[in-house]
Every structure is written in structure tokens, then in C-alpha cells.
Amino acid sequence: MMAWWPFRRPSRSALLAEELRSHLEMDEADRVARGETPRQAATNARRDFGNVGLVQELTRDMWAAIWIDRLWQDTKIGLRALWRTPAFTVIAVLCLALGIGANAAVFSWMEGLLFRPYPGVASQDRLVAIAGTVKGMPGYTSLSWPDFRDLERLSAGFSAFVADKITGATITGRDRADRLVGELVSANYFPALGIPLARGRGFLAGEDVGNGTHPVVVISYAMWRDRFALDPRVVGRTIDLNGVPLVIVGVASRRFAGTFVGYAMQFWVPASMQAAFTGTYELDDRSAPWIEGYAVLAPGVSRAAAQASITVAAARLAQTFPDVERGRAIRVLPLWETPFNAARELAPMLRVAVVVVLFVLLVACANVANLLLVRSVARRHEMAVRLAIGAGRARLLRQLVTEALLLGAIATVVGLAIAFACRNALSLFFAPRSGASIVLNSNFDWRVLTLSLGVGLVFTLVFALVPALRASDIDVTGALKAVAPSLAGGQRGARLRSAMVMLQVAMSFVLLVGGGLLFVSLQHMRNIDPGFALDRTYTTYVNLLAARYDSTRARLYADRLVTSLDGLAGARGVGLSTSRPLDPGAPYESVPIEVDGYRHAADETPTARSTSITPGYFAALGIRLVRGRDFRRTDSDTTLPVSIVSETMAARFWPGADPVGKRLRAGARWTRVIGVARDIRFESLLDPPAPLFYVPLSQNFAPGFSAFINSPRPLAEVGPAVSRAIRSLDPSLAAYNVLPMRDVAQRSTSPQRIAVTLIGICGALAVLLAAIGLYGAMSYVVSQSTRELGLRMALGAVPAAVLRLVVRRGLSVTTAGLVAGAAAALGTTRLLGDLLYGVSPRDPGAFVAALLVMLGTTLAACLVPGVRAARTDIVKALRV
Amino acid sequence: MPKSPPTSRLELLQGTLDLIILQTLRWGPLHGYGIAQMIRAASRYALRVDAGSLYPALHRLERQRVIAATWQTSDRKQRVRIYRLTAKGRRRLVAERSRWDRLTEAIAGILAHPVERDA
């Protein structure tokens, strides 16, 4: 009977049956010997023996491995039952798989981006990020090398401090130059983080001391493979990074790709080589913050204890070096709050995602519970027969639960496959920044697998239990007599179904409201005026440091570049700047300042953000000058140092006065303010502009800058032209992408865009599932009340009235769900937190929109069953 | 399952079936049907063991290794499952036997006082 099932145990049950049969036969033979007729003997023997099936069942209970046997049996029966109803199985598995898959995907992203983002790092569970805060400034700052070293010395509870700074480099030496990303690290990087090396060694203690004294590099496994074809003698060879020959001393293990969420690192160099990568040597400079540090907690030390210890250390530093340390505090952060990489941007989005996918899973489970209910009605006969031939209720229940678990298990496997297919989906939301490709990996480790499986099975079980309890609670005689379900049972089922539909409607409503709020936020963000032109402005990056330019040559190149770009067809403004608005990869320097007449608080170091620009910069970016004049080409090294301040800066440091003509100390140098520029949002599109000032590139030169070109021509035309202009001046320069400023700005709203897409997809999915659930429930109600509908129509109800009746019934279920959903939404949309912009979490517009969508869906879902009801054939209906 | 007439037979005391089976097997290996017949005969038809009790008990005792089973062909050319006591079973029998003796003695002691008859 199970021909398709290939495995068959040598059956212990068959042997038991034979044993019992022999008992009966012996009894019969004895009875015949005593003079009964064979027929009498057979009947009496059977009567004396009792229910053979039950005896078998009871005996089997005694076998040691009985539960395995039963599980096996239940599984076989369950698979067969699922196999017999492919439509049900496919739909149920798909619903569950989508729900479970969405959860698994989010789990794996959280694991891969927030909790254990650095595969290959052994001490990941005890790794924390170390960042500074400055009083009066939002966000976190990096630390200076001397500070970092002192903190390591002064604080207890850590087993290591690991300095780290992401850096780009141009590799030369072959026919073309290429861009690489890597990290400047302290010498203890590899041993302290527990990173194994595939070849060679990590850095030696002391290799992070001195200025350019240790030209060594560890390369990534991927680089070893791609550039050196896994050459076993790679250690000892030399590569040129930014024109500096570095000796390869090791190859990192295959799994390790650095300690920065967002990019896969290709090389690591000791901090002593800083000058070759950032242009300046700052290992002795306490006022130069650039270290993005990690620390490894000592075993058994909590983060709070470590924080307490480092706070004491920071206070001692502040006493010793009041000038640089005033108002500074040090924070010990968990990895998922690391302020320096993509983790911080993605964490709020992922927090929302967890809730969203949970809702989807709930909706999916409610749908499957509904399907199971229908199925249990269809299977009443089968259940009743099994009860009648001696299966206990517990046994039936176990059977049904096994079936549900099978569904759950299959769905989990399919769901994990879906999640695995989506493992790189997050990267799609980030426009690649020039050079390195974005890597946002998910991590499918045993924790994710276990959690997904657990969630899948538990949810399936909970939602399958109610239908199962109902299905196994059967009045045998009633069910056997009537093949059709009894009305009473049907009504109880209908209530349960309504409850499930209510749950679906409520969850969908919450998702719709959330999606609506995020959508409105995104619209608001699109309409934010950053203070500079997003359209018709293109940007690229030029790195002269990598090409080993000296200062004179670099200045000359910058001048010639501006002239050359100005000459491009369509160019309406060209400028250079050492920073790029909204690009965390080209940050605005934080500079201590002094202003005549401005009194700072005792624990405040007045600081402002600063960037160096060329005269055409404001024109290229469309930034208006409010007062004073722009820089001129005549402002140079030898003329009076000048500066232009932003409106916010003017209002902050020269309240009520015109700063033009006043003095401003920027770092070590006094400058004369010659103009006030309009505010721009340079750090984030969402934060209000911080105080910012500009100095001429000619007076504060750096051999790496972004170029900005204003042109009405399309990217396809401007991009190649700009690249050509840069290369024609020096073919040895590595090419960076030419990007429209809008792309740069858009990247800064990636978390919101991911959240909108995610919640949009999930919301649509949930509404669809809810519609299916509602449709099923209404169809069921209609099919159950054919007789009532027939009667109504016989008594004169017109079809339209019947249709109204069905729709009203559907609406009553939906309304209850909507009320619950609205309450839930009011409580949960707060979770969106920072992802919302310019819209209240309780925005009535979003609620009304969600309401309309749900009502429309209800109508659509009720229409088909309603029309069917309106077409009820009176004669047939009443004959039933 | 047919209900047994309420008064004509004695119900087996809880826990005594194991002892009775072991005792029955002391005389030699026997199949399930034989054991049931033996118990009926030995109790002078006062006790009857349901198949629903006997076979689970046999299989439970087999799992506990106090009895062992083999398939044999009976004199009627029929394959039957024959149970026999193991060494462990013999020890169990002795232990259960003495426990039973002490129990019956104790109960007999209690019952030794004459019953007050109701008027």
C-alpha cells in the first residue's frame, strides 16, 4: 500500500501479529477438540481474546524503542497524508517558508553584520569597540594614537587594545594602477584578535613604532589568490602600495576579511606606516584623532566593568592633558554599535526588520492554521475511522502534530534556502563607492540555523495545535454516519477561522502603517534641501599621495586639473575639496578653534568642522555666499590666511554680529573671515548642519581631494570626459568612479531605503496572505450557509442583498482585526525611531491609508464568495 | 472488547501478573497461549488473564531480560513464540516470591480477626 515508499523495516509488528495469530489458532484448535464447531470455535476464541489491534498496540508500547518506531510510523503516515493533498502541502509550505525564510534572512544578517561580523576572529564574543565622545558634539570620534596607547596602559579589565584604521591605497608596479582597501593596525592585531595566518607571520611587537620604519604588509587570502595565484613563496616578495615598497610577511587566513563592516579588506600594514597612507605621521600627536579602536575584554569582565575602568583612565588623561582632552569621554561599545562602520547605519533597520518578519511569520502561520482547519474538517471521516478501530485520541493528536512538524520542517528547509539566496541582498542597496566593492555578508552559523529551525517548528506547532485539538475531538458515531461535517462543529471551526483572519488583518495593518510611515519619511528625505545642488553635479576623487607627488608638484597638478576640467564642454563650475558632503569616506576634519570674544565653558574645547577648497567650489556645488566674498586664485601661501564660515557657525560664535573681517583661529593659525556661506548638510542628510568653515586649498594643502564638476550633460558623457582629463595629466593615477552627487546623497539614506523596501515587500506579502485567509473564511461561511441563503432568497431577498450580507460579514471580521491592528500599530510604530523623518509615528495619514487598503482588500476578498452566494440556486439549496 | 462478567472471576491484584508468569514458566518454556491456559488451570479457573494484559507483560519482561523468547515449530506444525526463564528471571522469581509471601502473611494477619457481621 505504500509502494512509493522505498524503505521497509523487517517488521517486528508482523512477528507480533503472527504470535497473536498463533494464540488464536491454538485456542480454536483446543475448542474444536473440546467439541465446538469450527465456526463457534473461531467466534469464541476471538471473543475471549478481545481486540487484536488493541492488544498489538498495548504490546508494542512495551518495546524499548517504541517512540522511535511510532515517530517513524507517524512520519510515514504524515508524509503520505501530505503527499495525497499536494495543493494543500505546496501552499502551506510556501506560506511558512516565506515567513521562516524572512526570519532566517534577518537573523543571518544580524549575525553577519552586528553580532559576529568578523569571521575568522577568535575573540569575537569578547570584542568591543572603543570610541570617544566630545562634550557638546553629537556622535563619536576616533582616538589619537598616544591616547589609545595610554588608555591601554591605564585601564584594567581588557586583555588587549587593538588599533585599527581603514585606509585606501593604490597598488602599482604592474601595467596599471589598482585601488585596494586595507587597514592600518597596531602590531598586536593578529595575535590579539586570534586571527590565524595561512602563510608567514603577523606583525612583530614594535613594528607599530616609528615613522615609516617597518615597511611590511600582510595580505588577504583573496589577494594572494587573485594577484599571486597562491604562490607558496609569496612571503618575502614586495608590493608597491602608494609607491612605497612593502615586504609581504604573511597571508591572513581564508575566512578573515578584516574588521570593518561593509568592505572586505585586502591588506594590513602596521600603524608605523601611517604617513604613506594618510599623508601625515600622527603617532606622536595627541590632538590627531584617527584610531578606530577595538579592545578585547578579559575573560569574565563585563562591558560595564570595562567601561567603569576606562572612564577612570580617561579622567586621568584629561587631568594630564587638559588642552586636548577637555570634555572628552571614552565609551566601550558592543560590536553592533561600532560607530565607524556600516553596523551603526544598519542596526536600527535590522531592529525593525526583526519585528516585521515576525509579523509576516504570524500572518503566514495564521493562514496555515486556517488551511489545517479546513483540512481537519475534510479528514473527519478518516479520523473517526481511526478512532473506531482503536487508536487513542492522544495517538491521533500526535499524528496531527507530527504532520504539522513535518510541514514546519520542510518549510524551514525551503525557507533557509530562500534566506541563503538573499544573503547578499543588502549590498544591492548601496551604490558602490569608488574602488572597493561593498560587502555586507550574512552569516549562516549554527546559531542562525538553530534559531530559524526553532522559530519555524515552534510557530508551526503552536498554530497547528488548535486545529489538531479540534480535529482529534470527534464524536465517532456522528462523524461516521454523516460524511459531511456537522453544522455545530463547522461553526466552532468558523469562529476559530475568524480569529485567525482577525490576527492576519491586525498584523497586516501594522505592517501597512509602518510601511506608509517609512514611505512618507523617504519622500520627506528626498525633498530635503541639503544646501547644495544634487543634480547636475558630479564628483570624483584624485589621490596624489599614492602617486608619490611632492607638495609643489601636487599643487601644480591641482591647478592644471581645475583648468582642464573647466575647459570640458558643458562645465559650468569646477572646484576641489578635501572633503565630500554626505560621504563618510571623505570626512570633514574636526578642528579646535578660537574666536575673539567667544567665551567657552570650562569643559568645552570649541571645535568646528573644516575643509579646504578651491575658488570654484561654491559655484560647482551651487552653495550660495550670504555675505562677503569667495576665495580667489590670488589667496595663496604667501598672502593673508583667510576663511569662510557657514551660517550656523556665524550664529554660534558671532551671535548677532557679522563675522566678516573678524579673526578665527583654526588649529595653530589665525585667519581672517572673508565671507559667510549658506549651511549645507554634510555629515548626514537628516541631521541639522553643524558649524563648518572653509579655508583655501592653497593655504592648507592636502595631496588627495574630491573634484566637483557642474554640468548639464548626462553622466555617460561627463564621466569618461572627467576621467580622461585626470589621466591625461598623469596616466599613472588610479581612476576613481565619477558619481552624480545625488548617488552620494542617496547612499546616506540607504537604511531608510532598505527599511521601506523590506517593509513594503513584507506588508504586501502580509496583505496578500490576509486576503487569502479572508477569502477562505468567507468561502467557507458561504458554503456552510447555503441553506440559510437559499431560504432568504426564497423569502424574497434579492441577490444584491445576499451579496451585502456576505460583505457585511467579512467586514465585521475585518473590523475587529483593524481595531486590534490600530491599537498594535499605535504601540509599535515608535520602534521605527530614527528611521522616520519629518513624520510622527502616529501620523493619521498613514493610518487612514492602511485602513483604506485593508477595506479594499476585504471587499475584494468577499466579492467572489459573495457573488457565489448571490447565485445560490434556491431549489438545490433547500433540497440539501 | 467484551466485558467480563462482574463477579464470576477474580481480578488480578496489581503487580501480581509478573510473578504469576514467572512462576508458570518455572516448569518449562511455554508460548503465550500455553501460559494463559496454565494460569487458568492452576487457579482452578478462578483467574483469567486477558491477552491485552498478558502479551504486554510478556514483552515487558522480555525487555527486562528476565525471560527470553525464541520461535519454534509446535507439534501442530505451527510457528509459535516460546518464552523461558533466564537466570536473571529465576533470581527475580525468588525475590518476588518472598515478597509475596511476606505480603500475604501480613494481610492474613490483618484478616485473622473475625469479621463483624452486619445485622
Explain what this protein looks like in three dimensions:
The complex is a heterodimer of chains A (880) and B (119). Chain A has 880 residues and is α+β, with helices and mostly antiparallel strands. Among the domains of chain A are: 10-63, no CATH class; 124-343, no CATH class; 508-525 and 748-880, no CATH class; 548-731, no CATH class. Helix content of chain A is 51%, strand content 15%. Chain A contains 27 helices and 24 strands. In chain A, strands 3-4-10-6-8-7 form a six-stranded mixed beta barrel. The longest helix of chain A is centred in the middle third of the chain and has 40 residues, at 487-526. The radius of gyration of chain A is 36 Å and the shape is elongated. The two termini of chain A are 36 Å apart. Chain B has 119 residues and is α+β, with helices and mostly antiparallel strands. Chain B has a single domain, classed as Winged helix-like DNA-binding domain superfamily/Winged helix DNA-binding domain (Arc Repressor Mutant, subunit A, Orthogonal Bundle), CATH 1.10.10. Chain B is built from four helices and three strands; from the N terminus they run αβααββα. Chain B has helices at residues 16-25, 32-42, 51-63, 87-111, and strands at 30-31, 67-73, 79-85. Chain B has a three-stranded antiparallel beta sheet with strand order 1-3-2. The longest helix of chain B is centred in the last third of the chain and has 25 residues, at 87-111. Chain B is globular, with a radius of gyration of 17 Å. Classes of the chains: A alpha+beta (880), B alpha+beta (119).
